[in-house]
Structures are given as structure tokens and as C-alpha cells.
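Lab meeting, item 3. Inverse folding demo.
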């Protein structure tokens, strides 16, 4: 017999219009993240960060179109895991879900690592590891007691972030204009550098894609969105395009103000640029905004890890006694949250570049799977109530899949090796729980 809580969750109230979904998606992406990873991206792309963001946007935009088509065809709370399971098979769906676990597991770690790098730049006498441990302890404690600060202040934080990004862009432009002198600004310089190999820019694009993670998160709101078949595809695409425009403009103006990749600390490069263009007052405002955004984002990311692990424990994909545990007082998956915090300690041994690349391994596999799902549906002829044409059903998702695979291949070797090991572990685990593929894997109800 289905209990009342499950029944309630099965019939969510549709109250969200297109503007609300857009705000949620942009808040989840955290626009200030463009500055958190700028130094790493500039170095990896050999000072072609703006072009790297633009190339990443191409892959993301075509993938967003595929997400939109699948959200229209399956108007339920979805994900790459759900779409692959419905379109191909339960086994492939499981492997895609396993790959995306990398995002969930390591996203909080990267958030804490970036925040610690900037706090260390502001307070160099305090070791970075202290900031990392402080982030982990505080966010873990808040998530265990069930305080949902990030969800409560999402819109306010987004407005603050957009204001800081706007001010940062304006100050960069002013500084670049003053430094250029009578000759004026070389406007095309950030995009066209003949001496930089395209492979370097693609390596940067593979890291830049990290900033776009979350554009698809609104697919989980499908059951709460008004007219989801119309609004969800629009929201997913517009979130990707608006986020991409912010990232490209921010990186472009940063390159104008600070050409080159020489920074005191690559992981906190934007701190150095902020001080250069706006002095102590602006760098204080920037740092406060960035840390606040990182803190709230870390709370949400860790909470997502706990929820996913709980769903897998409840459905007995993982040991139920551990992962299906709910704290009797706080009613939160306390053990899972603690596990996520312990995993975050890996940040003490990793840098931002490696950790973001590791996360993107799972993301690119998921994005590729989504594009392949649309192609499979096109050839199957099962298009739902609106026929999918050759351009939207074959050409665009094929471009998206090729771009995603290219970005995947452009990741640094360490990330590729670690990602491949994780994928093989998932394949072995799938063999075990399905008795060598003779049974379907359990379904994760998230």
C-alpha cells in the first residue's frame, strides 16, 4: 500500500511559470562561478578563456535543445539517467546515472576548494586546509539539522551575484580603456590569438563547461511547472544561453583588463584582478559575494548528494542499513551527509583544475547520452504529440554529441583515468547486482 507521503510526491502542484523556473536555474548555476575558476581556465586555454566559454556554450546549447525535447516527451521530473533508461535500457540508464554520481560526489568538494582558495588569498596567514575543513564542518552540520539556507535565499543571492558580475565587468572595461590609451582597446584580442593551438582552447573549454553545470537541473521541476511541455524546453535553453552570455562577457572583459596568464595564485586569480581594477573596497565586496555564493551552493550540493545516496539506499542499490538511514530527530540522511563531507577532504590533495575536470567527465557522458536519446527517438518514430524533424531530431543532437565527446577527450589525462576507473567500477557493480545482466537493475526513485 502506498503511504501518504509518496502519494503526495506523486502529484506535485503545478505553480511555477517560466520566469520562476529561469530564476531557479540561474541561481543554481551561480553566475559568480565564472570568477572562481577564471585563473585555472585562462592558464589551461593559454589566455583564450572567452573563446573557451563560447566553444563550451556551443556544446551546451545543442545539448540543451535535446534536454528540452526529452522534457517535452517525458513531462515528469527527469534527468539523463531517466531519459537513458526510458529510451535505451535500464542497464545503460544505470551506467549513465553512475557516471553522473561523479558530479554529485565531487561538486561540493570543488565548491569548498574554490572558496578556500579565495579566503587564503585574502588571509594568507591562514592555511588553506583550515578553510576547507571549516566549510565541510559548517555545511555538514547545517545539512544534518535540516536548515535549507540555500533554497531560502536563492533569488536574493542571484540578484547579489548578478550585481557583482555587472560591477566587475564595468570596472574591467574602465580599467582596460584607461590602460589602452589613445590607440583604444584591441576588441578582438581575447577571441583571436593565432599563436594559440586550438587544442589548448578546447582544453580550456573542457574546464569552462564546469560553469554550465546545473543548466539542466530545472528538469527536476517538470512536475511542478505550468505547461511543462512548452515552458520546460524554453527554460532549459534560455538558462544555458543567458548563463553562457554572462560567462563569455565576464571572461572577455577580464582578459581585456589582465591579458596573459601570470597570476600570484592561479586558483584565486580573480581576487588579484578585482584588487587591481577596484582597490580594497571592491575586492572586499567581491570576496564577500563570492564566499556567500560558494557557501550557499555548497549547502545545496551536499544536500543533493545526501538525497541521491538515500534514494539509492532506500531502493537497495546501495546497502540500506547505511545509506537508507534517516536521523530520528532531524529527519535528514545524516550518514550520507557525513560521507559527502569526508569525501570532500580529498580537496586537501587536489587542485581546482583536476577536480573540475573529474566532475566534467561524468557530465560529458551524461550530455552525450541525452543527445543520443533524441537521435534514438528520431529513428524510432515515437515522437509523441509533436513530430521531431531531421534537423532537431538528428542534426542538432549529433552536433551536440560530437561536441560533448570532443570536450570529454580534451579533459586532462588524470581526470580521464580516474573517470574511466569510476566507470569500470560501476560496470562491475552492475554485473553483480543484475546477476551478469540477467536481471534489470533496481530503479532509483529521486
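The presenter then showed the designed sequence:
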Amino acid at each position: 500500500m502506498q503511504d501518504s507521503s509518496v502519494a503526495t510526491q506523486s502529484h506535485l502542484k503545478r505553480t511555477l511559470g517560466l520566469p520562476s523556473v529561469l530564476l531557479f536555474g540561474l541561481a543554481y548555476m551561480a553566475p559568480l562561478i565564472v570568477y572562481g575558476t577564471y585563473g585555472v581556465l585562462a592558464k589551461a586555454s593559454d589566455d583564450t578563456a572567452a573563446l573557451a566559454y563560447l566553444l563550451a556554450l556551443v556544446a551546451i546549447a545543442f545539448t540543451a535543445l535535446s534536454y528540452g525535447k526529452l522534457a517535452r516527451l517525458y513531462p515528469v521530473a527527469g534527468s539523463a539517467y531517466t531519459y537513458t533508461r526510458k529510451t535505451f535500457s535500464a542497464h545503460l540508464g544505470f551506467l549513465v546515472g553512475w557516471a553522473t554520481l561523479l558530479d554529485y560526489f565531487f561538486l561540493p568538494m570543488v565548491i569548498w576548494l574554490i572558496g578556500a582558495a579565495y579566503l587564503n588569498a585574502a588571509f594568507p596567514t591562514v592555511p588553506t586546509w583550515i578553510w576547507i575543513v571549516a566549510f565541510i564542518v559548517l555545511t555538514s552540520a547545517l545539512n544534518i539539522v535540516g536548515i535549507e539556507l540555500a533554497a531560502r535565499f536563492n533569488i536574493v543571492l542571484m540578484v547579489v551575484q548578478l550585481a557583482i558580475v555587472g560591477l566587475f565587468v564595468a570596472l574591467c572595461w574602465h580599467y582596460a580603456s584607461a590602460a589602452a590609451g589613445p590607440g583604444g582597446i584591441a576588441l578582438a584580442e581575447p577571441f583571436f590569438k593565432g599563436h594559440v593551438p586550438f587544442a589548448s582552447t578546447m582544453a580550456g573549454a573542457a574546464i569552462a563547461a564546469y560553469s554550465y553545470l546545473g543548466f539542466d537541473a530545472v528538469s527536476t521541476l517538470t512536475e511542478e511547472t505550468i505547461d511543462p511541455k512548452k515552458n520546460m524546453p524554453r527554460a532549459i535553453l534560455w538558462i544555458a544561453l543567458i548563463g553562457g552570455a554572462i560567462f563569455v562577457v565576464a571572461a572577455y572583459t577580464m582578459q581585456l583588463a589582465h591579458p596573459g596568464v601570470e597570476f600570484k595564485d592561479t586558483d584565486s586569480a580573480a581576487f588579484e584582478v578585482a584588487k587591481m581594477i577596484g582597490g580594497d573596497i571592491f575586492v572586499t565586496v567581491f570576496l564577500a559575494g563570492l564566499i556567500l555564493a560558494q557557501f550557499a551552493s555548497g549547502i545545496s550540493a551536499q544536500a543533493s548528494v545526501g538525497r541521491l545516496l538515500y534514494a539509492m539506499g532506500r531502493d537497495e542499490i546501495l546497502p540500506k542499513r547505511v545509506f537508507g538511514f534517516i536521523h530520528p530527530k532531524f529527519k535528514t540522511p545524516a550518514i550520507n551527509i557525513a560521507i559527502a563531507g569526508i569525501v570532500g577532504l580529498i580537496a586537501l590533495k587536489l587542485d581546482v583544475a583536476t577536480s573540475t575536470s573529474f566532475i566534467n567527465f561524468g557530465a560529458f557522458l551524461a550530455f552525450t547520452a541525452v543527445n543520443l536519446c533524441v537521435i534514438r527517438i528520431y529513428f524510432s518514430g515515437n515522437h509523441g504529440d509533436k513530430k521531431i524533424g531531421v534537423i532537431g531530431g538528428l542534426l542538432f543532437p549529433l552536433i551536440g554529441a560530437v561536441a560533448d565527446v570532443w570536450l570529454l577527450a580534451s579533459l586532462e589525462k588524470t581526470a580521464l583515468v580516474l573517470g574511466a576507473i569510476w566507470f569500470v567500477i560501476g560496470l562491475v557493480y552492475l554485473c553483480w547486482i543484475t546477476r551478469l545482466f540477467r536481471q534489470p537493475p533496481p530503479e532509483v526513485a529521486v
